[in-house]
Task: structure prediction
Amino acid sequence: MTALLEVRDLRTQFQTEDGFVKAVDGVDFTVESGKTIGIVGESGCGKSVTCLTIMGLNERRNTTSSGEVLFNGEEILGASGSRLRSLRGKEIAMIFQDPMTSLNPVHTVGRQLVETVLLHNDISKAEARARAREALKEVGIPRAEQRVDDYPHQFSGGMRQRAMIAMAMINDPKLLIADEPTTALDVTTQAQILSLMQKLQEDHGTAIVMITHDLGVVAETAHEVVVMYAAKVVERGTVDAIFTAPQHPYTWGLLGSLPRLDAEIDRLAQIPGQPPSLLNPPRGCRFHPRCAYVMDVCREKVPELMGVSHDAAHEQACFLDEETKTREAARLFAATMAAGTSG
Amino acid sequence: MADELLVVEGLKKHFPVTRGIIFQRQIDAVRAVDGVSFTINEGETLGVVGESGCGKSTMARCLLKLIEPTEGKIVFRGRDISKLSRREMRPLRREMMMVFQDPYASLNVRKRVGFIVAEALEVHGIATPAERKRRVQSLLEVVGLNPEHYNRFPHEFSGGQRQRIGIARALAINPTLIVCDEPVSALDVSVQAQILNLLKDLQKEFGLTYIFIAHDLNVVRHISDRVMVMYLGKPVELASRTELYTAPKHPYTGALLGAVPIPDPALGRLRQRVVLEGDVPNPINPPAACNFHPRCPRFHEGHCDVETPELRNVAGHAHTTACHYPLEKWPMTPQEIRYDRSRTAAVGS
Result:
């Protein structure tokens, strides 16, 4: 099976008044049709910029990008504006975090859906309107025939996000990039939106890149997970590998600092300190100032992504030897499991 | 039994909806908080959860009398404070403080950290300026900042550090009760864990009582002793955290718990998902009787939409819920999740 999207050694930097900010620094991943890949990390780790770069949506004036982004084998990084416009909304669609600011408040939802259809299809307005109604129906908006003429402010938060998804899916794209699609929503609405996205993926075979900071959302939706820290990928693997046998101390920290619904833990394992500034990142491994297992080599050399011996699809960037890691991961996992059974 | 610090009875806050520019007449009311009663003991943490718009924050503001409640009694250390004037409230304000959600909006950008933290001390006329400075510096250390940060401005700090400043400010006058209104929802997970641990440590050290408001059920379970679930301005369930999370009784609590994603793919796949349909109704015109009945999987026609369920004990002495048909099993069985409404209606009639 060939990959739908291949990202190789992607680098993006912004020129600012204070110097160059390397927002994405050597990111690789591949997405296959019908699969979901989750990109997790804290704010400012470069997850959103990665996706904006893939879509060619960064401000050209102060941004330089390098690397390769192959969509269906075609290089789209630095492609012409007209080529990108024909891809966006047709082959690759995007859902943003805040549905209120990403819908146009002065046009009806229907008109915004029709615009997307007419841009990429040579059909009449009436047909486009019929398709817009169908799309709203498919995402579960009640009374879609009437609601198609509503303005975004007449929709609730969950309905707006449904309308955004309808707009993204209306041209049946091969790849859907969802940038924190449920962060602004309540848990019950979040559950509705996530199951809707899963259903649409099954029906249409769309590949999804899910960007989120919520490890729970990733665990429930993604097939593969990429963990980012300070503009770099620190760990990558299948969802089961990441959650049951994580290999990088940052991933341990993230999992440990999570309060659990299914367990009562007295004290959370916190990661000390703050994520570093990307203007002036630490030498060597970027996680070393906050890492409990720091060694001399971490301060000097930058760790590369390396395979894990027993799992070919699992890669991590840490100098720690595998024996220690397996022991520590088992310890971490045992703690939550024990708490899970007692709580 | 520990001492009761705060007793709330039938608290209501209705915001008027008016029409007309010069002659305003009230045409309706937003029932933001509609009959909340609970008790908090000293040294305890009460978690309050619910979706946005359920009245959690309005309730918190009423408790501190930052807004006037429409109805109900708030008894603090045996004294009814709901009718007190602003002047009469002054001395009591030393006992209650608040930590806000957005650490970017809740600190004055033009004031230095030292002033922000010391302001409450100054207002209440506590200590001399030199003592105040020493106290602020030691407070900064208590919350994990550096005493040298005294002369800095808020913009020099990250979100987590700002929230620490907010906590230091709340601690300055040695309050007994701290109301935390979504204190960690604007923070990243690793920083969130730091703040939660800090709040727990401070509670142990100073014997604080918290009312902890959040929409994140994981966080609430972690920090609370007892948890209250709210829906449309009303409490629907109140129980100890272990009971609430392992044996919820109200279908809404069940739906909330079922909607939270679990950071464990194997467990997540095993779980039966309850996806609640529809949106939270408009609090100007809430559904009749039980507010939750239009979305409830256990709805019984002719009962739930006619008779309002009162909060009553279900299991054990401290587990109350407002539901005619509380859940018997947890997790819910597949039949209960896919409750056939037409069939129920036939049985009900």
About this structure: The first strand of chain A starts at residue 5 and ends at 16. Chain A has two domains: 5-222, 241-342. Chain A is about 35% helix and 25% strand.
